[in-house]
Write a structure and sequence with these properties.
The structure is a single chain. With 113 residues, the protein is α+β, with helices and mostly antiparallel strands. 25% of the residues lie in helices and 33% in strands. The protein has a five-stranded mixed β-sheet, with helices on both faces. 23% of the residues are buried.
C-alpha cells in the first residue's frame, strides 16, 4: 500500500501554505492527479532558483534532493532543465514557490549557496 497523499492534494497544500506566509506559488505544469511526481522550484522574486525533486533512497524512502541551481550567467539552462524533465515524465508536476526560504515548505533547511 502506498502511503503517499495524492499529488494534487500535496500541491494544493503547498500553494495554500506559501500564500498564507505572504509568498506566491504557481503550478507551471500539471502532472498525474493522484500518483504524479513533484518537482519544486524555490526562488525569491523570481531569482536564485533551486530545483528539488523527490528521489528514491536505498531504504525505500523518498526524500527531497537539490538537483539544479540557477546560474545567473546562463539562466536559460535552468528552465531548459525543468522543461526537459517534463517532456521525459508526463506525470510530473512542476510547482514554483516564490518566497524567502521556500525550502521550509518541503521540510528542508534554508539553502546555503
Amino acid at each position: 500500500m502506498d502511503d503517499r497523499i495524492p499529488a494534487h492534494l500535496e500541491i494544493s497544500g503547498l500553494i495554500r501554505a506559501v500564500d498564507a506566509a505572504g509568498g506566491f506559488a504557481t503550478v507551471i505544469a500539471k502532472g498525474e492527479r493522484d500518483a504524479g511526481t513533484i518537482l519544486v522550484i524555490c526562488c525569491e522574486s523570481g531569482a536564485r532558483g533551486r530545483i528539488y525533486e523527490r528521489m528514491p533512497q536505498l531504504d525505500g524512502t523518498r526524500k527531497w534532493v537539490l538537483t539544479r541551481t540557477q546560474n545567473a550567467e546562463n539562466p536559460m539552462e535552468f528552465s531548459d532543465y525543468y522543461q526537459r524533465r517534463k517532456r521525459q515524465d508526463e506525470d510530473l508536476w512542476i510547482l514554483e514557490l516564490d518566497i524567502a526560504n521556500g525550502e521550509r515548505f518541503i521540510g528542508l533547511q534554508p539553502f546555503q549557496g
